[in-house]
Amino acid sequence: MNKRLLELNNVTKHFPIHKLGKKRFVHAMDDVSLSIHQGEILSIVGESGSGKTTTAKVIAKLYNIDSGSITFQGNRIDGKLTRNEMLKYRKNVQMIFQDPFGSLNPTHTIRSILERPFIIHNLAPKEEIENRIKEILVQVGMDPPEQFMRKFPHELSGGQRQRVNIARVMSVNPVLLLADEPTSMLDVSIRMIIMNMIKEFRDKHNISYLYITHDLAGARYIADRIAVMYAGMIMEIGKADNVIQQAYHPYTQLLKSAAPQPERDFRKQKLTTKGDIPSLIEPPSGCRFHPRCPAAVPECKNYIPPMTEVDKDHFVRCILK
Amino acid sequence: MGDIILKLQNLEAGYIIKQGDIKAVDNVNFELKRGEFLGIAGESGCGKSTLAYTIMGLLEDNGRIFNGEILYQDKDLTSMTENELKAIRWQNISMVFQSAMNALNPVMKIGNQLIDTILSHKKDFTKRDAINKSKEMLKLVDITEDRMNAFPHQLSGGMKQRVMIAMAMILEPDIIIMDEPTTALDVVVQRTIIDKISDLRKQFNFSVIFITHDLSLLVEISDKLIIMYSGQIIESGLANKVYNNPLHPYTKGLMNSFPSLTGKLQDFGGIPGKPPNFLKLPGGCRFHTRCPMKQDICSKVAPPLQQINNDHTARCHFVKKGN
Amino acid sequence: MKYVLRKFFWFFFALYIAVTINFILPRLMPGDPASVLVNKLQGVEEGSMEAIRAAFGIDTDKSILAQYGDYLINILKGDLGISISNYPYKVWDVLSKALPWTIGLMGIATLFSFIIGTFIGIVVAWKRKTKVANSVLGIFLFIRSFPYFWLGLILVYFFAFKKPLFPLGGAYSIGVFRGDGLPFIKSVIYHGILPGLTIAISSMGYWMLTIRNNMINVLAEDYIIVARAKGLPLTQIMNKYAARNAILPSVSGFAMALGFIIGGSLLTEMVFSYPGIGFMLYQAVQQQDYPLIQAIFLFIAIAVMTANFLSDIVIMLLDPRVRDGGKK
Amino acid sequence: MIKDMLKLFFINKKAFAGLIILSLFILMALFAPMIAPYGPKQNENDGEKFPLMASPSSEHILGTTNAGYDLYSQLIYGSRVTLFVGILTGLITTFISLSVGLFSGYLRGTVDDVISFVNNVFLVIPSLPLVIVIASYIPMRGVLPIILVLALTGWAWGSRVVRAQVLTIGEREFIKVAEVMGEKTVIIVFREILPNIISLVMAIFFTSTIAAIIGEATLEFIGLGNISTVTWGTMLFWAQNNAALLLDAWWWFLPPGLFIGILGTSFALMNFAIDEISNPKIRKR
Hints:
The complex is a heterotetramer of chains A (about 325), B (about 325), C (about 325) and D (about 280).
Chain A: E1 4-17, E2 24-37, E3 41-45, H1 52-59, E4 67-72, E5 75-76, H2 83-92, E6 93-96, H3 110-120, H4 126-139, H5 146-149, H6 158-170, E7 176-180, H7 188-205, E8 208-213, H8 216-222, E9 225-230, E10 233-239, H9 240-245, H10 250-258, E11 308-311, E12 314-316
Parallel strand pairs in A: 3-8, 3-9, 6-7, 7-8
Antiparallel strand pairs in A: 1-2, 1-4, 4-5, 9-10, 10-12, 11-12
Chain C: H1 2-28, H2 33-40, H3 46-56, H4 64-76, H5 91-126, H6 131-143, H7 148-162, H8 182-219, H9 222-229, H10 234-271, H11 277-286, H12 290-318, H13 320-323
Helix pairs in contact in C: 1-12, 5-8, 5-10, 5-12, 6-8, 7-8, 7-10, 8-10, 9-10, 10-11, 10-12, 11-12
Chain D: H1 2-11, H2 13-30, H3 32-35, E1 44-45, E2 48-49, H4 71-107, H5 109-124, H6 127-137, H7 144-171, H8 173-181, H9 185-193, H10 198-222, H11 232-241, H12 250-278, H13 280-284
Antiparallel strand pairs in D: 1-2
Helix pairs in contact in D: 2-4, 2-12, 4-5, 4-7, 4-10, 4-12, 5-7, 6-7, 7-10, 8-9, 10-11, 10-12, 11-12
């Protein structure tokens, strides 16, 4: 639990947008620092446009970062890697995407989708691949595997497709899995099953996760620690239960009060915020949340508060703390 | 809350496709009172959207109403001509669609899209009246009147959905059907919209049929709850009763699929397997293939929807009256 | 506004490329146009010969860059050189006589075919399940597969030769003059009907199919269902909701198709001996009048690019998303 | 998926009709010497000269030309060049469109900027007039120059459509998955993207083949092709040059054009069927 597996230090990622005239940027990630320990599940929670998916894609090396550093198992990986280094990194770090149908090429059978990892990373001799695929399919609960191997993605349900996706990433025995809202497009009845499977792989194989979600309750259920992102910045990070139960940041509190809670009589509670998620092209000055913050004071406009430790391992980016 | 304004009796509807008939709504009965908030929950493909489209009379060309009645204030919508239906649709029963992104015509100003709704129904309205009414409705959903001249792409997702709510309310209908109106939206936006709907309902006393797969949200906001599975109602009742005392194993499974935000952390399970194909429905109880409590009888005899007590029904062999 | 500027910039740049291609082509070709020119003009006195060479840009004494510079300057001055087959007339003079005919005939025919074809396409999509709609679709699919010139031949054969309802060719009757007023106009219209019809019939299928496919895509959109649910009259749904959205890709396709249609129309003019630039191109090709061929190509390129630019502007007026610099 | 599509293709009535017509033409081209009563440039049989400008008769089903050639035989032999030019040009055009579109769409960045710029220029330059200009400079011996000229001026539309499609597919998650898995670019392009645009590729092939058939006929008709070969286009050229129309020799100019149209229709039908199959919105309704 204590070994640091992945570390992001002050990572910034801006996407240029092409328009006539001056060059402008989408501030997708600003000054993001976080770390994931061996065998830990860190959940990033935030609304769309908060930069959580960009964070995962940056770690997956789908994007290069603008500044800061990313260290994996003690080695910097944010620069350009050789083909071999890249392959090695890819074998260790894998990603599960949100859309279970979009993640599977509709023109290939499950079998030919699942044999790619073995071929790319040279994991098994040709004649063994078939058996390895079967093993892994059983592991993700697709039993009997023969029945599924010949099928095309469109012949499977959403839950089955996501199982195939998990099977594919599991086949390379990764140490870190980036899961980008892996259950949000699934039917409610199957979500917990997939989440439980993810948890189980952590327990059994000591795999670490970066688990991205917009569902606060789900994050609390699955994660050891939670990071709350807003408009490209981390606002609060700490032990899962602490972040939820003692939410310091007004934004975390907002998310909390907005989440559906059947045990509460909602008629009594009203949201205290107005407005939409700010433009990431021209983000608000100072604290990114100040235009919507019910507790904002004049200084909030003027400077970006630093991350402050409010409790043990519980950090908040708010001027009031 | 008062009189019954909508009553579905033995409604059967669905689609005719090459491989056979699909009865996506199978023998559905319910009553909706004035001012009531009825939640309908179920997985994708349980027939909840088909139900909405059937009530609206908007089924696609291959859609059919096979049997049953939809009684709006004792008038049967299923036996009406398209013209008679037109007089009731939107005027008395309107709808908010799932994807606000695509529900507005991208090349028309939203003001005009509101106005044409009024003008096609209210013959005594002048254009001026319609404009004023539209502005008034936009104000109700917290959109300033200068947005009358905006095009849909200039609005955020939440704003578009609020425009759709204004559009659904503009003729002051008795019933608004909402088909997953907040599914595509972020939690905070979702909450503001839900708040808005509840305010407006208090103010105008219309009934809402709210369709979603998000049971945790539904329990929180509904008066009455209907759980659908494979085209059938498998449990219905007052929302707090269904939440506190779910009877059907499927409902229990659904309840167990939402981890609690602040409550005790326990293991949550979900429901393995997938809903049956409408073309190859299993014999007996439709849920028996996925049911953790299944017995021999379940695959042989289809259970009826039983009245368990005053406000609670369930379709399972193993629930008894007074449970 | 940025959108217009960008399109305007692109328009000029494309134009510049077309002009440059026009300069490069004869210099890349294996044959020697200069020798053709010299052969053709044998007997012309040496002084004019020099002038022609210079005008045509085959001044071998100068470097290619200098030639290019001269060429660009000449183009800017509207000096396209001298037509070989119409010596000693300038290309521009020859061309300007043919231009109005082509612009008139092709412009009107294309506009008609666009409007009618689009209209038919909308109706066919709206009533796509009826037998009539399907057979109309089939007929257009069939007609579209024929070369324009052959359709022209068929029309001439049946409606001018077998049943002399219309003239065999030309733009107006012999013996009628420009100054005659109404009789001249009548004659022009009378002569324009068959060639116009050829262009209209053969290009109509394109518009019809394009808008039909767009319509079918649009009709599956949610806002159509909403419009239906709102109880709007069908005509309003069809026009303001469906057709209004479906026509956008058609308009942006207009310019692109125009290149194709102009190509086809050129051939139509040949069949009807219509004194436009198509017929002129035919004659120029036969007589190897390279300056004229190139000038005609340049003109067509300019026409297509202008149309392209205009359709971009129309799209901007029709689609608020483009106006805001969003989509596309 | 691809198999399903092919299956649908063969079930589709329009595609089937198109396929039948095309096969008939191909058979006609292959077995021309057996079907045609005479050679394409034969003006005598056993020392007996054919009549000139004869109307259809039992000896000459479609009459003869002013040089005494049998038009029925010419029509049959003409299918050879027309089909050859059409299909080969279609293939080359599709190949260029596909390679340009695939790589500019997937690689993006500067490569894409440059390629799409050139592409856009080619798109707005009217191709037929350009072909005429080019063809008027090169002496056309054989059909190869025609094929090259048509292919080189006809690829722009296709590559733009491919590029647009590749751009959207490139955004799909399975491409990202392949990247994260460590696939090589070449494999991503050919194994992951290409199978997803098969229907588009077919559509481009059909469309460009029709364009090539008409383009070839047009060039021949103006006299820019090799007028000594026998194709449907040159048949029309000779018919026009000898005023067949004014001589009421319908048998000379009617059949070749009709055949061009029918051949074009067969491709159009298949193209239409592909559209029906691959566009779920059209299929559904």
